[in-house]
């Protein structure tokens, strides 16, 4: 703990009432070391000490705590977009009167030409931190939050945060789709988050404005960042509902809640799994030398020997190549013309019956062959004619 803080606590705390702080140093001064184990004792001592101011006990910071005011004036400039100009013109009187009233005593000026608002302290301002609260209030109004909601930031226990979500997605289509998840059907998801966290949430463009207590703002920022990273807010809402029920039940106050909270596994897209399981192409062998340059026309002519020919020989060679190409084209054209004079193929008559081939066994096949051979020999003997058949008797 720093020396300033020690002096601040030593001034208002009766150290004799705090156990463990009666030791004295060699110089005779009382030692004062606050640690985590003795915070409760310090709190009780503050409550019992009548000389300590209210803000040190955890109360509000009043004008009695700083009767002389601030040493110097300070101000902040807040820029606003053009579409908020009309709203600010209509409600600037309400904003000025609210911030100028007790216990804030802040001055607000609107400059529509330059598109800015200026909030500054006055001679009556006694709270040194209220200027930051006024700046946050006007920032929320500039982002589109209605002033009745934005002025809640001026309270001591209420804070705000503007979360930027524009750079959390890869393209505009994905961004609009995931931002719509925060709203839900008819704004039901947003309303459920507001009830469970006790915060006011306002989504405008590429920012989300949150107003509430510190724990609630922390929870909302986690839900928003996970939503932009493709985790649906409904999973967090279910966990928050279970936590609220466990908090209200005194039996589970000193018990870990991990086993009662719902756990969700992220589903894996099949197309992504297929891409991962795809076999990688084998890499080519590494060669330290660069690829050979393409050959020029001159190099090709040297290899073929055409470079060393005379102009007459080159012309004769070109003429021969031209005649060969011409002859090839004539042959191709003749083939195409001959196709026109070819008769069309006759289609087979479908009415003719096709004889099915019968597969015979080995024994039957041998018998049939032997029978055919014997019948053939007999027929040949019958057909044999004699010379006497042609002689007339």
Automatic annotation (TrEMBL):
Residues 1-33, 275-297, 313-393 are annotated as: Disordered. It is found in: Nucleus, Nucleolus. Residues 367-378 have a biased composition (Polar residues). The lineage of its organism: Eukaryota, Discoba, Heterolobosea, Tetramitia, Eutetramitia. Belongs to the KRR1 family. Pfam families: KH_KRR1_1st, KH_KRR1_2nd. Keywords: Nucleus, Ribonucleoprotein, Ribosome biogenesis, RNA-binding, rRNA processing. One of its GO terms (molecular function) is RNA binding. It comes from the Eukaryota. Residues 7-26, 313-350 have a biased composition (Basic and acidic residues). SMART domains: KH. Residues 157-229 form the K Homology domain. Coiled coil: none annotated. The keyword Ribonucleoprotein applies. Its main location: nucleus. It comes from Naegleria lovaniensis (Amoeba). This is KRR-R motif-containing protein 1. One of its GO terms (cellular component) is small-subunit processome. One of its GO terms (biological process) is rRNA processing.
